[in-house]
Amino acid sequence: MKYYAGIDIGGTNIKTGIVDELGEIVAEDSIPTGADRPQEVVLQDIIASVRGCVSTAGASLSAAGMGSPGAIDSERGVVIRNYNLGWKDFAIAPAMSEALGVPVTLENDADAAALGEVVAGCAKGAKSAMIITLGTGVGSGYVIDGKIFRGCEFGHMVIVHGGLQCTCGRKGCFEAYCSATGLIRMTREAGITEDDGTVNGKTIFDAAENGNKAAAELIDEYIEYLACGIANLINGLQPEVVGLGGGVAKQGESLLAPLREKLRREVFGGFALPRIVSCTLGYKAGLIGAAMAGKNLAASADR
Amino acid sequence: MKYYAGIDIGGTNIKTGIVDELGEIVAEDSIPTGADRPQEVVLQDIIASVRGCVSTAGASLSAAGMGSPGAIDSERGVVIRNYNLGWKDFAIAPAMSEALGVPVTLENDADAAALGEVVAGCAKGAKSAMIITLGTGVGSGYVIDGKIFRGCEFGHMVIVHGGLQCTCGRKGCFEAYCSATGLIRMTREAGITEDDGTVNGKTIFDAAENGNKAAAELIDEYIEYLACGIANLINGLQPEVVGLGGGVAKQGESLLAPLREKLRREVFGGFALPRIVSCTLGYKAGLIGAAMAGKNLAASADR
Question: Do residue B270 and residue A225 have CB atoms under 8 angstroms apart?
């Protein structure tokens, strides 16, 4: 059995772990990111954490993979810019490779999580899968033939020309309508709140469940936009599985059943609807996927 | 030097040819499709035409590729359904392979044309290219690392939720706004016609050139939608080159210059704008690309 280190870099915590070649986690750790420190200091913490995991697992590493948010250059293994972490032009993969003595790949964190779901989660065994994360933004990761299709990012696909202002500068992006942030905005605008006046991504679903008709209509409208964006991607790339992650996807079938219903009307006649499912791995997706990206790197180097 | 046969199947004519490994056509032929005849009879004509080309070129074939419109199954080499040709469940690639004694691949015709433009046309040498055809519909073909990314079809990506009715059943598709058909409809609705009352894809551009202000505004609106759809694909897939083909693209820089201007405002800050160019190979793109798909098939079989 071969083993790979996975590193999932987040703004608050960095998760590290050792994953076997089948995608099973055999050791893991989580450390505070401490983003106020110089990037080289954070790197030393990550190295120590990985070494701890290696020691716990009693395994020798074949390769490692990292998932990072922000603008990255996967070819060179460099985090170009990450505003949350304060990182800039950080050649983290080469530095990590030197420290660990194995090849290290750097991937976008959403891409890594998508690979995790294909190896061990909701899209296990699928020839191709699009993983869409409905969180603060809308992220997308595409995996085909077991490999990350780098840079597949459809959160800023305009679905409503001239529509809602998006943070990216465009108007009418998929993200502006379908992120948890977008849903919370819609909920607040409809005057639907928790008892204490706050609104979260669950508020609207709870209200609908309690018989609030306006809430049910708003959910229908949300799913309408979601179906529009997802149908674009199904028609455009024909994934075998579409997996939904992020906070909103926790609604499970009460979101997925009406979504499938709408998608059937939006997807080309000749195509069967892909499997539309919820992601199953949670935070582990990023860890497993990063490690499996390391595995793919080692395999391509062997060829 | 190795040689490959390319076959581009159209509703009116079928073009065949022999292409060398560098993408140069060394012999070619064109035969009427005769779509009213049984599919097996058409096949015999294609085989005879290819054999004629082989003889003219004095070359021995290493493989062949076919580009076909309609619903195809590339894995099995079967045209599932082509209404224009009246073809149904036609295992044309295996039949062709038996007749020619070499491996034969079947690709979507837009995909094949995109590969042709990457091998020998507007996107020569590009690591990745998206070729968008603005014709009766809007077709798209994506080539990455010299290979066709099968089934990348964004003509039916909704860019205006709830917008114009598209032939596919959805509302607001890229195709409904940006095909030559869509442009002709817009032109007619604006009351702009040729002297004889007809409208074609050039009418609006000619009118604008002759100082018609309404025509210039309409072109601006058309390019606005075109930029919206293309920006979605640039943000989503980050191609190195975007090549525009089809009748509308014949406008060249008078279309491309304002398009680039709008794209600069729509494409993510971190990305440089890809090269935005017109396709250069015309009908030869399909022929060359089909042959080069055959070359890729042979190369993957060798591995």
Answer: no
CB contact under 8 A, B169 and A231: no
Contact B160 A160 (CB under 8 A): yes
Q: Are A286 and A15 in contact (CB under 8 A)?
A: yes
Give pLDDT, residue B269.
62
Q: Give the separation between CA B288 and CA B16, rounded to whole angstroms.
A: 10
Structure tokens at B300: 């993957």
CATH architecture of A3-109+283-302: 2-Layer Sandwich (3.30)
The beta-carbon neighbor of A151 closest among B157, B231, B238 is B238
Q: What would be the CATH architecture of the domain defined by B122-278?
A: 2-Layer Sandwich (3.30)
CB pairs under 8 A between A and B: 78
Mind spelling out the 3-state secondary structure of A31-88? EECCCCCCHHHHHHHHHHHHHHHHHHHCCCEEEEEEEECCEEECCCCEEEEECCCCEE
Q: Confirm or reject contact between B191 and chain A (CB < 8 A).
A: no
Q: Is the pLDDT of residue A247 over 70?
A: yes
Q: Which residue of B has its CA nearest to A167?
A: B268
* DSSP three-state, residue A163: coil
Q: Where are the domains of chain B?
A: 3-107, 122-278
pTM: 0.92
**CB contact (8 A) between residue B154 and residue A231:** no
Percent of all residues in chain B with a pLDDT value above 70, rounded to a whole number: 99
Contact B235 A156 (CB under 8 A): yes
Q: Looking at CA atoms only, how far is residue B93 from chain A in angstroms? A: 21
Question: Are both B3-107 and B122-278 of the same fold?
Answer: yes
